[in-house]
Design goal:
Mean pLDDT: 96
Structural class: alpha/beta
Bound molecules: S-adenosylmethionine
Number of helices: 10
Strand order of the largest sheet: 6-5-4-7-8-15-14
Length: 325
């Protein structure tokens, strides 16, 4: 039996390997003294659709800033690209913002959106089919990169897009390592378009991750719901609450789930019983914020050369076009 999601299907064996990996990551993450869960698990079907709702919140200006820049500068960006180009997008989600650039580049164009969320990719494929030939890859970033770049055609270059400041989800040291790995998967002539959310007023950043409507809270709590559904756990979601914190030293927003009470949770598929003290938290996501000045250095340290940069002033955010150096 297989699960069919548009151009992509997953076998039963792959399904159970994914469950085993999820169980093992949960076991390891909850064994740490600061309990943690990897942020990629926030994006199951419900999580991806809650994230999509977050992008519409008045408090979450990040996506609108990113989209304004792409819309305003799509032609400038397209004019700086090699003449024969195919597009890869890391963590594309539904790919809504990418439409502006795909349209400016024009057809025929191969587009490889890579995402761990099959549901977001299914929508991406459906919504962007009129502007590109879409080849969705339900994989993690670098595995997807290997698959997409294996399809490079003679004299063709790749533009890799990494939007939404998703690079901010990596610890700073891991971001450097990740960008170096990405560079190794590319060739001279290839380019990277990378969005980075800039440090701004603390309260503005905090409310973007702790909206009064409670959508970000639901997005965060859904991770426990997902563990209940997929790993047979008995988390009582009402006994946890969403928290967003600004970590000044690391210049990042951290999302946590705080246990309201002393409690014990059983996670059957991970063969794990875990105790929580009241006020103890599970750290679920980091969103590092950047200074404009550090972005050029980041390019240089990871094997790229800065080609251009566009900055949104209403919601400080930088779109950066880097070339493989
Ligand atoms: C912050 S969202 C950004 C979505 C979209 N690019 C945007 O700018 O609105 C991060 C996206 O990356 C995907 N993602 C997270 N970790 C991933 C990983 N390790 N490999 C592939 N995709 C991942 C998520 O499913 C989600 O769609």
């Amino acid at each position: 039996m297989s699960t069919q999601v548009f151009g992509w299907s997953k076998t039963e064996a792959e399904d159970s390997a994914a469950v085993r990996e999820f169980a093992s990551d949960v076991r390891n993450g909850l064994a740490k003294s600061q309990k943690e869960l990897h942020s990629k698990y926030l994006y199951d079907e419900l999580g991806s659709s809650l994230f999509e709702s977050i992008t519409h919140l008045p408090e979450y200006g990040l996506t609108r800033a990113d989209e304004r820049l792409l819309q305003r500068h799509a032609r400038d960006i397209a004019s700086l690209l090699p003449s024969r180009v195919a597009i890869i997008e890391l963590g594309s989600g539904v790919g809504q913002k990418t439409r502006h650039l795909l349209q400016a580049i024009g057809n025929p164009l191969r587009y490889y959106p890579i995402d761990v969320s099959a549901d977001a990719l299914a929508r991406c494929e459906r919504d962007l089919a009129d502007v590109a030939e879409v080849h969705p890859l339900v994989q993690s970033y670098l595995d997807g990169m290997a698959r997409a770049t294996a399809e490079r055609q003679p004299d063709e270059s790749f533009l890799v897009m990494f939007l939404g400041s998703t690079i901010g989800n990596f610890e700073r040291k891991c971001a450097l390592e990740f960008l170096r790995d990405l560079r190794r998967a590319l060739l001279p002539g290839d380019m990277l378009l990378i969005g980075a959310d800039l440090v701004k007023d603390r309260d503005r950043m905090l409310v973007a991750y702790d909206d009064p409507t409670g959508v970000t809270g639901a997005f965060n709590l859904n991770l426990l719901g997902r563990i209940n559904r997929e790993l047979g756990a008995d988390f009582r979601l009402r006994d946890f609450e969403h928290q967003a914190r600004w970590n000044e030293d690391q210049r990042r927003i951290e999302m946590h789930l705080r246990s309201r009470v002393d409690q014990t949770v059983r996670i059957a598929e991970a063969d794990l019983t875990v105790n929580f003290r009241a006020d103890e938290t599970i750290w679920t996501e980091s969103s590092h914020k950047f200074q404009l000045s550090e972005l050029d250095a980041l390019a240089e340290q990871t094997g790229f050369r800065v080609e251009d940069q566009w900055v949104d002033r209403d919601w400080p955010f930088a779109e950066n076009l880097w070339a493989v150096s």
